[in-house]
Amino acid sequence: MNKVNELNIFLKNKDARFILEYFIKSYSGKTAFSTSFSIEDQVITHILSELTLQPKIFTLDTGRLPEETYKIIDRTRESYGVDIEIYFPNFDSVEKMVREKGVNLFYNSIEDRKLCCHVRKIEPLKRALKGFEVWITGLRREQSITRKNINVVEYDDINQIIKVNPLFNWTEEDVWDYIRKNNIPYNSLYDKNYKSIGCEPCTRAVRPNEDIRAGRWWWENPETKECRLHLACLNSSRMSTGFGGHDKEELFEKQK
Ligand code: SF4
After folding, report:
1. Cα–Cα distance for residue pair 127/212, rounded to 1 Å
2. pTM exceeds 0.85
C-alpha cells in the first residue's frame, strides 16, 4: 500500500483541525497554504490562527481581482494577525500576453483563457510553492464536477508536492455553519449571490439552483472550468492512490 493510501486511511474521519495540525507538525517549515479568501480558505485561516505552528500562507494577486477581494485580504490580515504573502505575475509575461492577445483575451477562446490563467496564476503558484513539500488547499468535493473525486491527501504531479484538502468532504452548509459560529470575516460578494470568487472579469453571481462554480468562466463547459491550479490531482484518479510513477517516498519519511 502506498503512502497516499496509508495517509488517507489514517486521516479518515479526522477533523480538519487534526489534519492541519498533523501536516504542519510533520512538515514543519515545509508546508504552505494557498488562500483565495474563499469561505473555505477563511475557515482554514481561522483554524491555522489557533494553532501554535503555522505554515506559510500566500495568495496570488492576478491583477484582475475584484475590489471586494482586496478588502477581505486586509480584513483577514487585521483580524487574525497572520502574515499573508502576495505573489504577482511576471510583468514581462503579462505585457507580452496583453500586447499580443488583448487585455480581455480570456473571452476569445478556452486556449486564450488558459494562457491568461497560466501567466497570472500557474507561474506565480509554482514560485510560491518552490521548496515546499505540502500544499494545503480549501478544495471540496461538492464544489464541481471536476472536484468530485478529490481526497484528503493527493499528490500533485505538476508541482511535485503533497496536496492536502482538509475540507474535502465538507458541504457548503458545513462551511457556512462554521463561518457564522466563529464570526469569520468573508468576501462581501457572497452576499450578492456569488458562490465561487476568482478574477473580476471571469466571475459572476449565480442564479438560484445553479451550480456553485456556474459563475466561473460561465461561457465554458463545466468540464473545462479549472484554471489548472488544481488540475494535476483532478484529472487523474491515480493521484488519489499513488504518485503517478514518481518516486516520492522520501517526502513521507518524516511522518514515520
Ligand atoms: S480567471 Fe480570468 S482574468 Fe483571472 S487569470 Fe484566469 S483567465 Fe485571467
Report:
1. 29
2. yes
